[in-house]
Specification:
CATH topology of one domain: Endonuclease III, domain 1
Radius of gyration: 23 Å
Structural class: alpha+beta
Oligomer: single chain
Shape: globular
Strand order of the largest sheet: 5-9-8-7-6
Largest sheet: 5 strands, antiparallel
CATH class of one domain: Mainly Alpha
CATH architecture of one domain: Orthogonal Bundle
Number of helices: 23
Strand content: 5-15%
Number of strands: 11
Distance between the termini: 62 Å
């Protein structure tokens, strides 16, 4: 992020919430760093410095403020103007790439050297990859101490530390206080049992459209949506369980809760849920950019658009392939059959959630033709699953929509629409764009004539770099228009 001191200082003076999470303020007179919205008395201008990340502030010797709690700030450097390489690295760090691996191995996954990756992080975040990973782990642990009653050993496991001893050392180094004081200061009276965490969203956040999107696509046995809660079965690092994500009325946040026999690493879980609910998107800035187009201005009116993500890229790829040229309901039925046939049963069923989504190896070996799939679609799914299972296709290394399309369309049965859909929801590329999408083309139609795919791409050029959000806005608008048309038609019947 390019730090502009005058702009940052104005945001601090006015406690402008639009800048919360975008930078941090180090106060030299106290040795503390804060969020721009900190309620404490505004320090003198001569005593403050600005940092692109919490890791950079801590690397400079500042400790987190106890009042504004920098570890709870919404947003991520991945959404703040960093390069695609750094954004991909941050996502992999969230998924635990540096818990055991090295910066060199992380760089290799990104196609750069460890030295070059360190230079990019220093330039754009003001901290090294290891500093960023350490800050994220220790901040997660701090929040677990405050928001749960988990034993310290379980907090250490969930936040990616190898032992309680290592966690104690990190907490002392970062907060200058022992773990016991942090838990007491956090107010153990309101802490909940088990693994639970509040995930902040960048305002304005409306969870209803996301929950509705997930509800219409929920696979029986794997997912459910009831009222304000999305739940699903998950597996991570050899452990399985159920996660619940609940939207709380009046809060710009969701509450994540895990049910599992042993603690799952929570940082990757929280990162995936954050992407699923697109919590870090700056909906206001995106809407302002896209509303310059009169068509999208109508689509965004009254809506805070977010792109629904996916728990797992392989699962989404399968679902996208199942949904080609059939209805959402029909694709959901086929997915349920696949889960029942080759998904592993959950050790302890959680209500209606009974199965894990099949692994690539299990799907590759399944008799898909007996489940109601055409031979061509069964062969395409088997080819996709085999490529993922044997490592030919590494979905976690797809860094952009262009890369996703280039890799995925090489497999039989996968076209540009499917590749862009995967890029939009699993790779989380904000500029992914399924130009051949029928609903998008219908929204752009003039005089009843649909634009060609090439014409659609030209029309959407002005929407960059947020074409995925434009797509969701048009889908929402067309769905609302169709619902109104059906309602009018019913009202005219005698």
């Amino acid at each position: 992020m390019n730090i502009e001191p005058d702009l940052c200082w104005n945001a601090v003076r006015t406690r402008d919430r639009r800048f919360d999470g975008r930078f941090f303020v180090g106060v030299t007179s106290t040795g503390i760093y804060c969020r721009p919205i900190c309620p404490a008395r505004t320090p003198a201008r001569r005593n403050v410095g600005f940092y692109a990340s919490a890791a950079a502030a801590e690397a400079a010797g500042f400790r987190p403020c106890r009042r504004c709690r920098p570890e709870t700030a919404p947003g991520s450097a991945a959404w703040q103007g960093t390069s695609a390489t750094v954004a991909r690295a941050l996502r992999l760090i969230d998924d635990g790439a540096l818990d055991e691996g090295s910066v060199e191995s992380l760089g290799a996954r990104l196609g750069v050297t460890g030295r070059w990756l360190r230079a990019l992080f220093a330039e754009q975040l003001g901290a090294s990859p290891l500093d960023v990973a350490q800050t994220r782990r220790v901040h997660l642990a701090r929040r677990l101490l405050d928001e749960t009653s988990l034993p310290l050993e379980d907090v250490a496991a969930a936040s990616g530390f190898g032992s309680a001893r290592r966690l104690r050392e990190a907490l002392q180094r970062t907060f200058r206080r022992p773990a016991s004081e942090l838990r007491r200061a956090g107010g153990a009276a309101h802490a909940v049992p088990g693994l639970a965490l509040k995930l902040g969203a960048r305002a304005p956040f409306d969870p209803a459209p996301l929950l509705a999107f997930f509800a219409t696509r929920a696979i029986p046995g794997v997912e459910s949506v009831e009222s304000d809660t999305y739940a699903r079965t998950v597996t991570l690092d050899g452990a399985s369980g159920v996660l619940e994500v609940r939207a709380v009325a009046g809060e710009q946040a969701v509450r994540l809760r895990m049910h599992s026999a042993r603690p799952l690493p929570l940082l990757p879980v929280a990162a995936r849920v954050t992407r699923m609910f697109d919590l870090e998107a700056d909906a206001t800035a995106i809407a302002a950019h896209l509303s310059a187009d009169p068509l999208l201005a109508r689509a965004f009116r009254g809506r805070a658009i977010r792109v629904p993500g996916a728990w797992d890229a392989f699962e989404l790829g399968v679902r996208a392939m199942l949904g080609q040229q059939i209805t959402v309901a029909a694709a959901r039925t086929l997915a349920a059959r696949i889960v029942a046939a080759c998904g592993a049963p959950l050790a302890t069923p959680h209500g209606a959630l009974t199965h894990l989504f099949p692994t690539p190896a299990a799907l590759a070996a399944a008799p898909l033709e007996t489940l109601g799939l055409t031979r061509a679609r069964a062969a395409a799914l088997r080819g996709f699953a085999t490529a993922v299972a044997d490592g030919t296709l590494k979905l976690d290394e797809l860094g952009s929509a262009e890369e996703a399309q280039a890799r995925l369309v090489q497999l039989p049965g996968i076209g540009p629409w499917t590749a862009q859909y995967v890029a939009m929801r699993a790779v989380h590329d904000p500029d992914a764009f399924p130009a051949g999408d029928l609903i998008v083309r219908q929204a752009l139609a003039r005089g009843g004539k649909l634009p060609t795919e090439r014409e659609t791409l030209v029309r959407a050029e002005r929407w960059r770099p947020w074409r995925a959000y434009a797509t969701l806005a048009l889908w929402a608008q067309m769905s609302a228009n169709n619902a109104r048309a059906k309602s009018k038609k019913r009202s005219r019947k005698p």
